[in-house]
């Protein structure tokens, strides 16, 4: 399997990146090297093996549904690129 | 005075040979004069002197612990309240966290003095600290060489004796490989041992914080202070932390060291292999026993890691959108363009590569072939370790296949760069504690690192074995020329 510049543009859309045509060309060589390396996985037979998603076999802890944090929206919004009246400002989404 | 270990400083502060403020001033002065290393992104001079002065008051009253007044540096990936946290990225160039990471908070409570925040590969993605928006860090052992990565600024700072200890994070080797390349002791504890709260996420099932210092003993003291359950991290282990310091003096006689043949292949530089073989003989001389073990799926570690880590990263890094914090592009017409322009300007090439790979392996049609396949290999790799640890207490090998390589050598070849982690990333996949300690020098005077992997939750044994090795060697005492 290898990626052509069109597929790279498609993946870029998925992760919200933008590439010019020449950038997509530049990335495709390196990405295909990585994919070829990754495909060495196929040399190992993994039938009947349970996937492992995490190093711990633990249950997620539950806690009482009580408020533990103070309202600090002013602190949190002080570093926002654009905030007004307690809201984050973004370009118009709904006409 | 600048070149001493944590414990030597601790003793000197207690005996009033010098104060924490004097020590802090001296190290800050040295850090300014070594700016060419580019080890720091931010120096926190004012805050450091305040913390040092507070520590001196405690010491004067006979209060405080062994770490009170001891300076350290934090990798710029741990959130520090009121001090910017960049992760080596343009997208967080202006980010000031409203809270401290748990690790930062605990070390401050232990009395440690933060001198600054260190350079790193962007979002911890790299093995050379060349992928930083703030430029590459240089290795004090050879200025044209990389310090390793991603915690390369932390490693360079300790190697140059700008601080006696540094925090780092290790997702695939990012504490151990720079420790090896800079001649330091560095430990990545078991997954879950150190809270990830306030540690900017790269690959959440692999990321773990830890420490680099000059000796295993120093690592034990700092690790002790930063470890333990934290309810703010849902994957924090609710288990008592062993007394690492006390365990250092245990005899290593009869300890069984497993030697995987997969870690002694042709891919390892001969001088590195020779140094590790000699170090193993020395451990045998100290009473340890060696046996051959198999880790048959080791070769799959790199491919497996480079599917799982990018997959987790592509999800974690979705939060950098130019809305709530960090960089926002100045030119866009709608919200999608705003996201795309912000992220394209904000992220460097290695982060972009990993986001694309992550999106690819998680896409419909490829998910089973790549992501699930990698998860199955992860299980095989973890099972290999479980079987090996039925027969041994510690697994030993080289930390990295070579010593520090020249800046620029591997920047255009990501796969070659990834192979630096060939011996380290399997410990992250399995969640095991692992450490690198200095084990010699090559013909060019560059440090060689020995890798010790322990059983899950058994940091104490690797620290103990490393400590006994260091009682009988002086590699960890060598100082790079010009930094004494």
How would you describe what is shown here?
The complex is a heterodimer of chains A (95) and B (484). Chain A has helices at residues 5-14, 21-38, 73-77, and strands at 83-84, 87-88. Chain A is 35% helix and 4% strand. The two termini of chain A are 42 Å apart. Chain A has 95 residues and is mainly α. In chain A, helix 1 (5-14) crosses helix 2. Chain B is α/β, with parallel strands linked by helices and 484 residues long. Among the domains of chain B are: 6-254, Amidase signature (AS) enzymes (Alpha-Beta Complex), CATH 3.90.1300.10; 299-377, no CATH class. Chain B has helices spanning 6-14, 20-33, 45-60, 102-109, 152-159, 176-181, 216-226, 244-247, 270-285, 301-316, 335-346, 349-361, 367-388, 414-418, 425-430, 459-471, and strands spanning 40-43, 71-75, 113-118, 165-169, 185-188, 209-213, 256-260, 289-293, 394-398, 434-441, 447-454. In chain B, strands 4-6-5-10-11-9-7-8 form an eight-stranded mixed beta sheet, with helices on both faces. The N and C termini of chain B lie close together (9 Å). The model of chain B has no long low-confidence stretch (mean pLDDT 97). The interface between A and B is large, with 52 and 73 residues.
């Amino acid at each position: 399997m290898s990626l052509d510049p069109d597929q790279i543009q498609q993946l870029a859309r998925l992760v919200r990146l933008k590439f010019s045509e020449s950038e997509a060309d530049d990335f495709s060589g390196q990405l295909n090297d990585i994919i070829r390396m990754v495909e060495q996985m196929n040399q190992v037979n993994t039938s009947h093996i349970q996937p492992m998603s995490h190093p711990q076999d633990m249950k997620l802890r539950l806690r009482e549904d009580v408020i533990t944090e103070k309202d600090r929206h002013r602190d949190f919004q002080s570093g926002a690129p654009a905030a007004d009246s307690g809201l984050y400002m973004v370009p118009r989404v709904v006409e | 005075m600048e070149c001493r270990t944590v414990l030597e400083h601790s003793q000197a502060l207690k005996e009033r040979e010098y104060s924490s403020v004097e020590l802090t001033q001296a190290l800050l002065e040295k850090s300014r004069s070594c700016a060419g290393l580019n080890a720091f992104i931010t120096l926190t001079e004012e805050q450091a002197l305040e913390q040092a002065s507070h520590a001196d008051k405690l010491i004067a009253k006979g209060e405080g612990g062994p770490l009170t007044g001891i300076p350290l540096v934090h990798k710029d990936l741990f959130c520090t309240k009121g001090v910017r946290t960049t992760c080596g990225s343009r997208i967080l160039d202006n980010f000031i966290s409203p809270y401290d990471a748990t690790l930062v908070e605990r070390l401050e409570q232990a009395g440690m003095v933060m001198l600054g925040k260190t350079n790193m590969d962007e979002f911890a993605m790299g093995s050379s600290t060349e992928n930083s928006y703030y430029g590459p860090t240089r290795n004090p052992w050879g200025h044209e060489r990389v310090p390793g990565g991603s915690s390369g600024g932390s490693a360079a700072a300790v190697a140059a004796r700008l601080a006696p200890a540094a925090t780092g994070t290790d997702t695939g080797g990012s504490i151990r490989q720079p420790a090896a390349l800079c001649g330091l002791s560095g430990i990545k504890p078991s997954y879950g041992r150190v809270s990830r709260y306030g540690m900017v996420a790269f690959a959440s099932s692999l990321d773990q914080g830890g420490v680099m210092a000059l000796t295993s003993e120093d690592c034990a003291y700092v690790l002790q202070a930063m470890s333990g359950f934290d309810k703010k991290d849902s994957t924090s282990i609710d288990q008592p932390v062993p007394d690492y310091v006390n365990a250092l003096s245990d005899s290593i006689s009869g300890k069984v060291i497993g030697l995987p043949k997969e870690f002694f292949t042709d891919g390892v530089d001969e001088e590195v292999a020779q140094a590790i073989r000699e170090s193993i003989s020395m451990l045998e001389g100290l009473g340890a026993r060696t046996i051959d073990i198999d880790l048959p799926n080791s070769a799959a570690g790199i491919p497996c890691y480079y599917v799982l880590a990018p997959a987790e990263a592509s999800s974690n890094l979705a939060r950098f959108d130019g809305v709530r914090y960090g960089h926002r592009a100045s030119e866009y017409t709608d919200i999608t363009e705003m996201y795309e322009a912000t992220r394209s300007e904000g992220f460097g090439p290695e982060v972009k590569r990993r986001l694309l790979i992550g999106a690819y392996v998680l896409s419909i049609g490829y998910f089973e072939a790549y992501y699930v396949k990698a998860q199955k290999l992860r299980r095989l790799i973890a099972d290999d370790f479980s079987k090996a640890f039925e027969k041994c207490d510690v697994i030993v090998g080289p930390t990295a296949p070579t010593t520090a390589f020249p800046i620029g050598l591997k920047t255009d070849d990501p796969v070659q760069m990834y192979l630096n982690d060939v011996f380290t990333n399997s410990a992250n996949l399995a969640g095991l504690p692992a450490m690198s300690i200095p084990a010699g020098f090559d013909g060019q005077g560059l440090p060689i690192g020995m890798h010790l992997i322990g059983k899950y939750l058994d940091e104490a044994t690797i620290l103990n074995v490393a400590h006994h090795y260091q009682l009988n060697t002086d590699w960890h005492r060598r100082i790079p020329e010009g930094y004494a």
